[in-house]
């Protein structure tokens, strides 16, 4: 059994519950142990891009200190934005002894120190590099034959260079996952395009435009479903679809799932354990595969 | 009429700060326009990303600081990933936002968010919006 410290991030406990629930369900089948970090805090969600801003990495790095306290050397995340923020802050702080000591100085009252040696991993990386596609295929009891899947990477999973789980411009990890589940990955245009991210709060028209394009491209490529790995992308590309339909004449909707939910269906897990109570999505998949 | 190409001391100071905190030399841009061609939110910007860099080169710092462009950019890093000169444009735009935010000038006014919408937004959206758009 492979064991990891698990960093959930805030949204896994609110609108992204289904992501966490389905991740735990598939981890059990694949013999991956995820131990939630005690007293974790928000990672900050976005990596601070200015170089004179060590304090903004404080919240992020504090979580890595907790990982070390658990005796673990690797931390596993599900959310693309947490992954990006944790990984980049870790690299930024750990690669420079002066910054690392500056950051540790902020925590002097708590007597905490970060060594700089924790490795940040995303579940998709673990599936590819630690579990392996062949081992995953061997666990599939319910191959999703005929289901056409559009893998949506968005930004945080692949960009910028060095921060992603896969190639910058031509990632394949999600498509390889889809193939391993017996489903069919579709080739499509918008898989690396931004969903509008936090503009969902102040500029929702921007997000509607992005969602309209992303969903239309997926449908044009013949996809039945979009899978993704970020609870903010899910909100924008998934939950916002009915509103987009009100604004854009002729807009057609498509089901959106976390990749762990699609995996769960192929691994024969009860949809209820995957946080899937949406009958419309299940109906669509059932038309093709008996779940 | 705006007189272009004047590097006054105060403009130079802001530009120096932008270059220092972003670690980007804006003068290395040769205006190929790739950043603007690949930007997914270009239609909502009033100055194209390559134009913003050009204006900085010309010393027109205030024009760029007053643009919608710096706030529309959500740091998706498409421009950064594809710039043939290796310029981290996303970092330049963040530095410009920081020049404003560090003066405590907020871009996001929470009073404008309808109350019935507030509860349904995911935590991740709130935290990232407030980190990017408030000082």
TrEMBL record, chain B:
Gene3D superfamilies cross-referenced by the UniProt entry: Alpha-helical ferredoxin
Keyword Iron-sulfur in annotation: yes
Q: What Gene Ontology terms describe what this protein does at the molecular function level?
A: 4 iron, 4 sulfur cluster binding; metal ion binding; oxidoreductase activity
Q: Which UniProt keywords apply?
A: 4Fe-4S, Iron, Iron-sulfur, Metal-binding, Oxidoreductase
Q: Which InterPro entries match?
A: 4Fe4S_Fe-S-bd (IPR017896), 4Fe4S_Fe_S_CS (IPR017900), HdrC_iron-sulfur_subunit (IPR051460), Helical_ferredxn (IPR009051)
Q: Which domain of life is it from?
A: Bacteria
Return any one Pfam family short name.
Fer4_8
- Please list the residue ranges annotated as the 4Fe-4S ferredoxin-type domain: 20-50
Q: Name one GO cellular component term.
A: plasma membrane
Q: Which PANTHER family match?
A: IRON-SULFUR-BINDING OXIDOREDUCTASE FADF-RELATED, IRON-SULFUR-BINDING OXIDOREDUCTASE FADF-RELATED-RELATED
What name does UniProt use for this protein?
Answer: Heterodisulfide reductase
Upper lineage is: Bacteria, Bacteria division TA06
